[in-house]
Write a structure and sequence with these properties.
This protein has helices at residues 16-23, 28-34, 48-61, 67-74, 78-81, 88-91, 97-106, 115-125, 128-144, 151-172, 174-193, 196-201. The protein has 202 residues and is an all-alpha fold. Helix 9 (128-144) packs antiparallel against helix 10.
Length: 202
């Protein structure tokens, strides 16, 4: 596993070169595959299709205009969240389908796999693209956490993020790392303001 160079430059407005690069991508087939998630509700509201699009948008927001990365973002949950999903649909989506599928499988938790083991595997063995995608995925999830009312769930998710996602983000993108820290801090502040920690001590 090679050493990665952590991204530290703040993303700028998309320039014409990157706009043309994005324009040339064949994202539509992956968006179509992603619509299979429209019926999958999220704990915080909305559905899993929107989460795929949000994750892709976060990557673009951070300056990532990589076709395989963005295509994988569009479908990163389909294998995990749709029982018996035919992975050949991704493989055959276009000429980059094989690479996209490989990346999707990297960030897919296997059936019966414990979440800590899944995240440890990404820390230890994940490719740079898998780690970047996981950070964007977690940013989307942390933002959605603002609509969750279960204090126990929020605390558990913040703990998980600090333990497993902080190291991933710190390795690949310092600006993502800073945002994830800020999101965790805001959720912990919510727990403190709501009196959750005081109730736990009683």
């Amino acid at each position: 596993m090679g050493t990665y160079v952590m991204a530290t430059e703040k993303p700028l407005q998309m320039d014409t070169e990157h706009m043309l690069q994005l324009k040339s991508m064949s994202l539509a087939p992956y968006m179509q595959l992603s619509t299979a998630l429209i019926g999958k509700a999220r704990f915080a509201g909305g559905n899993m299709f929107r989460h795929q699009m949000d994750t892709m948008g976060i990557l673009i927001d951070y300056g990532y205009i990589d076709s395989v990365l963005l295509k994988a973002a569009c479908v990163h949950d389909v294998v995990e969240d749709i029982p018996g999903y035919d992975i050949e649909l991704i493989r055959n989506a276009d000429e980059e389908g094989e690479e996209v599928l490989k990346l999707v499988l990297e960030v897919t938790k296997q059936k019966g796999q414990l979440k800590p083991d899944y995240l440890r595997n990404i820390i230890k063995n994940g490719s740079q693209k898998a780690k970047i995608l996981k950070c964007a995925d977690r940013i989307s999830n942390m933002i959605s956490l603002g609509f969750v009312t279960s204090a126990e769930f929020i605390e558990r998710y913040c703990d998980e993020t600090e333990c497993f996602i902080f190291p991933i983000a710190l390795e690949v993108d310092f600006n993502m790392y800073q945002e994830i820290i800020s999101l965790v801090e805001s959720r912990r502040q919510y727990l403190e303001n709501s009196g959750y920690y005081d109730r736990k001590e009683d």
